[in-house]
Amino acid sequence: MTPVEDQSDIASCVANSFAGAYEYLLKKSTGYHTDVSRLFIYYNARIKDEESDDIDDSGCTVASAIESLEESGTCLESLWPYKMKRVNK
Q1: In the 8-state DSSP scheme, what is residue 86?
Q2: Is residue 7 part of a domain?
Q3: What are the residue ranges of helices labelled H in 1-89?
């Protein structure tokens, strides 16, 4: 398993769980641990839920997280770091 991540005061529990599952599957198939961007997943899932670019930190649905991962995948944590000030960017 990959390490448990702290979501801080961000309502990103769905995105955090999906990132953990994604990282687990990557590690299982490649043997290497890769940190994927939880905030990238969270941002794109909220775009699906809100159906606009005007989003807020109100969580996301499981369905939107799945759809956004299918369409956009994710990126590395180093490219889109999990920082409170970037939650709506």
Answers
A1: G
A2: no
A3: 13-30, 38-50, 62-72
- Residue 79 placed within a domain: yes
Per residue in 18-53, pLDDT tens?
999 999 999 999 999 999 999 999 999 999 988 777
Total domain count for the chain? 1
Is it the case that residue 54 has pLDDT exceeding 80? no
Q: How far apart are CA 31 and CA 33, in angstroms?
A: 7
Contact 22, 66 (CB under 8 A): no
Asked if residue 80 is part of any domain, the answer here is yes
26: domain range?
13-86
Q: What is the pLDDT of residues 74-83, one digit of tens each?
A: 999 999 999 9
Angle at 51 between CA 26 and CA 78, to 5 degrees: 35
